[in-house]
Amino acid sequence: MTAALTLLAAGLAAVSLLVGAAGFGVPDPVILWEVRAPRTALAVLVGGGLGLAGAVMQGLLRNRLADPGLLGVTGGASLGAVLAYYWGLAAAVPLALPLGGLAGALVAAALVFALAARAGTGAALILAGIAVAAIASAAVAMALSFAPNPFALAEITVWLLGSLEDRSWRDATLAAPVVLAGAALLLPLGARLDALALGEATAESLGVPVASTMRLAALGAALAVGGGTAVAGGVGFVGLIVPNLVRFGAGERPGALLAPSLWAGAALVLAADIVVRLVPLQQELRLGVLTALLGAPLLLHLALRHARFG
Amino acid sequence: MIAAETIAVRLDGRTVLDGVSLAVAPGELVALVGPNGAGKSTLLRVLAGLTRPAAGRVTLDGVALNALAPRARARRIAWLEQGARAAWGMTVREIALLGRLPHGDAAAAPVAAALAAVGLDRMADRRIDRLSGGEARRAMIARVLATGPDVMLLDEPCADLDPAQGFAVMRLLREEAAKGRAVVVILHDLALAARYADRMALLESGRLVADAAPDAVMADALAGRVFRVRIGEGPTVLPA
User: Fold this and answer.
1) Of A68, A72, A62, A50, whose CA–CA distance to A192 is shortest?
2) ipTM of the shown complex
3) Under an 8 Å CB criterion, which residues of A touch B?
4) What's residue B217's pLDDT?
5) Nearest C-alpha of chain B: how many angstroms from A75?
């Protein structure tokens, strides 16, 4: 399963390198290396981080509708980026935008981490994450309503939609260590998540340190998602959909979903990013818009299925 | 030998257990009985090391339970939660394998033996959410067996099972006790307790009011008073 998905992601990465505004073809080496390659690397980082964090969050919270966005990290990253715009830093300093996003994601992660450390249960973790996300979204709304000029407003709004267009190696090298650190924290949690399938008390009785698992998962998911969001903006629903798709092939054991979800997430974002380049629209379809268009109906399907079978 | 010594537990300012002492030797099957809210589940959680008592202590072969590392404790004491359910459609084998987690291995032999003991060896690859209530309960018990613990603590393993399934579970626990494990099982069915247990420990409002052979506990007027029922010939229970 993992091998097949890795191959799929690798194949899509190759396609991604060959797809441009002019269609398929081997491009000029400069374009290949300076434009396509960082875009492809970022798609893998963003998608892999979201897929893995989604699988961990669903396992941790024992809910197939859980999403890394519940942790407030996406909201924190958005707020950080919006503030960078708002203060005009984005225009003055080249990396201000992703750095602002990263700072926002880390602050949100630190908040959730501190709250999760005190909470110790999944339900409290969700509440803390929702509260952090709500604060961030209120602050983003405030920044938007006080936007200094209509151009800033338009730029912020477009950034919030999420995209990999025109990203450089600087963006990729900024995101990579953060996402990889998150993945390194999350990938070893499989056995603990398996035990949590039987509830927090039973996991504890099996010798699993539930509170520290909660903290590691919250921190790891925040990094895995925050690094990508900081440079790509909000790419919704990937963390929610991917583990649910992987379950069809890998079964339902939470630990069995981690590595496959990483590669399936990478493959999904690569595929979506290829599609947005191929759709013949005047302006490129935003990546976050496409994933939401695909993800929302699937969420509805899952919700209805859940309602029917209980 | 697992022993609780003068355990007191207070939850939200309410005294749930008050000076309870209970010792269970290897090979013994003790039924923990009492009306709802008497503190049975709390006592079982204290024995499992999951609830820290406000006073008193639990020892395992003379060693204080809280001196053991969580994994070392988990290798020796297995606990089955009341109404335990799996959140995911994991297979029966995957559930049983969780019992090996404290050992840090995925040893096939104890898992296969546990599945055979509960009669699920031919359903090992079925999803637990597609099984009947009795089969799913047996899969959960297989998880406890797969650990190969010295002490088995089971909270109402026979609840919601039809009589034949309940007997089967109790026979299984008898066999496990015969292998030298100490077994503590919470039962609400006094007839099952009387029939299969070596001893009945009767809890009332957080205090242990009887701890003796089933015949003695059932013959005593005390059990009838605690449960507010009449206990008739043999282990029959009639409305008060």
Assistant:
1) A62
2) 0.94
3) 62-63, 191, 194-199, 201-202, 204-209, 251-254
4) 87
5) 28
